[in-house]
Amino acid sequence: GAPKPSNFLRQVIERDLEQGTYAGRHWSGHPADGAQQKAGPADPARIRTRFPPEPNGYLHVGHAKSICLNFGLAQDYQGICHLRFDDTNPEKEEQEYVDGIKDAVHWLGYGWDANGITHLYQASDYFDFMYRAAEYLVEAGFAYVDEQTPEEMRVNRGDFGRPGVDSPFRSRSIEENLQRLRDMRDGKLPDGSAVLRARIDMASPNINMRDPTIYRIKHAEHHNTGSKWCIYPMYTFAHPIEDALENITHSICTLEFEDQRPFYDWLLDRLAEGGLINTPHPRQYEFARLNLTYVLTSKRKLKQLVDQGHVSGWDDPRMPTIVGMRRRGYTPESLRLFADRIGVSKADSWIDYSTLEIALRDDLDPKAARAMAVLDPVKMVVTNWDELMGAGHLDPCSAPVHPHDPSRGRRDFMFGRELWVERTDYEDTPPKGFFRLFPGNKVRMKYGHVIECVGATRDASGAVTEIQARLVPDTKSGTPGADAVKVKGNITWVGVADGVKAEVRMYDRLFSVPQPGAGDRDFLEELNPDSLKLVTAYVEPSLGKAHGDEKFQFERHGYFVADRKDHAAGKPVFNRVTGLKDSFGK
Ligand code: ATP
Ligand code: MG
Ligand code: MG
C-alpha cells in the first residue's frame, strides 16, 4: 500500500534504527527464567514492541488500535511484536478471555507463531525474576518493607500541594528489610499488613515517585503459579521488568502512564546497574487512547453490559468488542484502515464514529456482492400479468453480482404476478419529489419491467395490505426499446415465487449520546432503546445460499452480513452492518 504517514513514534524508531541504539545491546546478562531464550538472540538490531492485555475481558476497538499500532510498527520496520498476557494479578484463570484475545489478534491479521516473527508470552512466568529483582533492590538500599496501615500510607504520601512524610519504617536496616520481605514471601504476614516500597523521594513533585509500592501481600492462588506465591508485584513494577526481560525496545502505552515513565526508567536504571537486565533498556512512549463517540471503551463497563443482560453477550453485534464488531460485519481490513487513518497523537480527542463506518464502507464497497431485499414487505399484484404473460408464468431476470466487476457473474431471480415491495415505496398522494409508487405513476422494477401503479387496498386500520399495478409491455431491462418509456422511479423488489424469508436484525448505535456516561452520568441510562429492531424480510434467492459471515450490499439499504452464529441454510439471519451513507448521529 501507500507509505504510511510519519508520526512521533515512527520518528523515534527511525532515529533508533539509524543510530543503532539497540544494535549493541548487551545480551549476555541475566538468567531471565527462559524469557530471553524465548525472545531469541537473533538480530538484536530489530525493534521489539509488545501488546500486553490483561486477560480480564474481551478486547475492544481501543485495543484494536493498540494492536494495529504495535504489530503494525513491528511489521513495517521488520521488527517483532510480542503478545503478552499481563497476568500478574492473582485472578481466577479466565481461559475464555485468553482464547478470545488470541482469536482477536489473529483475526486482525497478526500472528505470533505461524510466521515465526512473534511469540506468545505471559508475565507470570517472570515471578521468580521479579522477586529476585525485589531482593536486589532491598540489598542495594533501594527498597524497604513498610508496615504502616494503608490509611497512614495514604496520608503520608501527601498530595500535589504537600510533600510526603517519611514512613517510620523507611530507615530500617537492609538486614531487617530483607528478613521482613522474606517473611512476606513465606506467608508469615497477613494481607494488607506490609508492602515492599521503592525508596526514591517522598518530596518528589511526581507522586508516583514517592516511594511507590512494588509488592503486596495477597494470599491467593494464581492460575499459572498456583499457591507458590502469596506476594504479587504491582503493575508499575512488573511491567518495566517484563519489557526488559523480553528485550522490548519501544514500550508503547496510553497517556495515563506518562507520569509512570520516571519510575519505569528509575527501576530499569537500578536493575541495569545491578547487572540484572540487558542494556540499553527499553523506553516507554505514550500516545492518546482511542475515544470513539457513542462507544464505551472500558472493559469494566462493557462487562457490566454483558453481566446485566443489556446485550446478548460480549459478541453482541452492538458491542464495540472485536468479537462484536466481527459479528456485526466489520472486517480486519476495515479496522486496520481505521487505525491507519486516525493515526497516533499525543493529545486526547474524540474520534467521530462515522470515521469507523467510512473505513468499513470503503472496504466493503468493492468487495460485497449486491442483492435485493425488501425489509418492510407488502405484496404488489400485477393485475394484467396472466393476460400478457400467461397464468403462472415466471420471467427470469438477472443483475450483476458487482456493478464494477463483470467477472463476478450475475445473479438470477424471477419476475412474476406477485412481487414484494417496500411499504414505504407507496403513497396514495405523492409528496413533492416522490417518484415511486402512487396511482397513475410508471416506475421501473429494477432489472425487470416497467409497471404502472393502479392503487392499493387497506385494512380497517388504514395499513396497506396490497398494491395493484399493470405491466407495461415491451419494457424489460436489457431488451431492445426497453428505455422507450421514461420513468423517474427505480424500485427494488423480490419475487413472491422465489423470494426467501429472512430474519433481519436492524442494529443501531447502542447509546443515544456521543459520550455515554460522561460527567458522572450513568451510562446505563443512556442506552438507546431502539438499538435493535427485528424485521421479517424477503430477500432474493441468491441470498438463500449465503454462508455465515458473508457480507452483502442490499441495494438501497446498506451493508448486511449473514450472522456468524445464527445464520443457517433454510433459516437465514442477516445483521445490518451500516447504511449506504453516513447517517450516524443524524
Ligand atoms: P480497559 O480500561 O478497557 O480495561 P486496559 O488498558 O485496562 O483497558 P489492557 O488489557 O491493560 O486494558 O490493555 C492492553 C493494551 O491496550 C494496553 O497497552 C492499553 O494501553 C491498550 N488500550 C486499552 N484501551 C485502549 C484505547 N481505548 N485506545 C488505545 N489503546 C488502548
Ligand atoms: Mg490495564
Ligand atoms: Mg482496565
Automatic annotation (TrEMBL):
ATP binds at E54, P55, N56, T254, R289, L290. It holds the Pfam family tRNA-synt_1c_C2. Residues 47-364 form the Glutamyl/glutaminyl-tRNA synthetase class Ib catalytic domain. It catalyses: tRNA(Gln) + L-glutamine + ATP = L-glutaminyl-tRNA(Gln) + AMP + diphosphate. Residues 20-44 are annotated as: Disordered. One of its GO terms (biological process) is glutamyl-tRNA aminoacylation. The keyword Ligase applies. Its EC number is 6.1.1.18. InterPro entries: aa-tRNA-synth_I_CS, Gln-tRNA-synth, Gln/Glu-tRNA_Ligase, Gln_tRNA_ligase_bac, Glu/Gln-tRNA-synth, Glu/Gln-tRNA-synth_Ib_cat-dom, Glu/Gln-tRNA-synth_Ib_codon-bd, Rbsml_bL25/Gln-tRNA_synth_N. A motif ('KMSKS' region) lies at residues 296-300. One of its GO terms (molecular function) is glutamine-tRNA ligase activity. Signal peptide: none annotated. It is an enzyme of class 6 (ligase). L-glutamine binds at D86, Y235. Gene3D superfamilies: HUPs, Ribosomal Protein L25, Chain P. The keyword Transcription does not apply. Residues 368-471 form the Glutamyl/glutaminyl-tRNA synthetase class Ib anti-codon binding domain. One of its GO terms (cellular component) is cytosol. Residues 491-563 form the tRNA synthetases class I (E and Q) anti-codon binding domain. It is found in: Cytoplasm. HAMAP family: Gln_tRNA_synth. NCBIfam families: glnS, PRK14703.1. Belongs to the class-I aminoacyl-tRNA synthetase family. Monomer. This is Glutamine--tRNA ligase. The lineage of its organism: Bacteria, Pseudomonadati, Pseudomonadota, Betaproteobacteria, Burkholderiales.
